[in-house]
Design a protein that fits this description.
about 220 residues, mainly alpha
Length: about 220
């Protein structure tokens, strides 16, 4: 492996890539399917936020309310912690390259999204302060673009197609949120199911990427 930041690889070894990809793409789909087809509860109560489900359900409250939403918050938080830890490691090494910018930006972005989901920022808090939800979601799309631009050369040297799948799913969920307000079971499951699937794939990709950066990025001065 070359000692320059321009050449080190951020792809998984081929012997690992296939089984990891099957798990990363298949497991979230199985979780979403299990949430949809479980026989005990209308699946939309699993996908909606806990507070929203408790407010809208005829009977309050079931232990499974917001289950998928809470899993999503956990994933946002795990990626945020991993990204910020990786940025700290690079900073200690004296690395101020695109890898540092990418991991720092990604860690902060995922951390903010965890807070957004946990506190209903874009759904309740920020609109309550006079900000239109449409503008907030467009701003979040711009944040996603900032994530891509902060280290696009690194991303292109990674298994970027996994990231693309995750972002397409999350982006489709955002598009539905912007254009369609559907509180039916089908509408909620489609929007939040896409969000959960995309977030799971994106999270797995980012954690793998951050790990490879820590392992393979050359130390400053090496």
């Amino acid at each position: 492996m070359s000692g320059t930041a321009a050449t080190y690889s951020l792809t998984l070894p081929k012997r690992v890539l296939v089984p990891v990809s099957v798990i990363v793409l298949g497991l979230p789909a199985l979780v979403v399917a299990a949430a949809i087809y479980q026989p005990w509860l209308d699946p939309k109560w699993l996908f909606l936020d806990v507070v929203v489900a408790a407010r809208e359900a005829d009977e309050c409250c079931h232990i499974a309310f917001g289950f998928m939403s809470q899993l999503g918050i956990i994933m946002w938080t795990c990626v945020a912690a991993t990204g910020l830890l990786t940025a700290l490691v690079l900073w200690i090494r004296g690395d101020r390259s695109a890898a540092f910018s990418l991991t720092l930006f990604a860690g902060l972005l995922h951390g903010w999204m965890a807070l957004d989901d946990a506190l209903l920022l874009h759904e309740s808090v920020l609109p309550g302060l006079g900000l239109r939800q449409t503008y907030i979601l467009v701003f979040y799309i711009l944040l996603g673009a900032g994530y891509l631009l902060s280290g696009w050369r690194l991303l292109l040297r990674s298994d970027w197609w996994l990231l693309a799948i995750g972002l397409v799913a999350v982006g489709s969920s955002l598009l539905l949120d912007l254009t369609v307000y559907d509180r039916s079971t089908a509408g909620v499951v489609l929007e939040d199911g896409l969000k959960f699937y995309g977030l799971a794939v994106w999270s797995a990709y980012d954690i793998a990427l951050f790990t490879l950066i820590q392992l393979r990025a050359p130390h400053a001065g090496s």
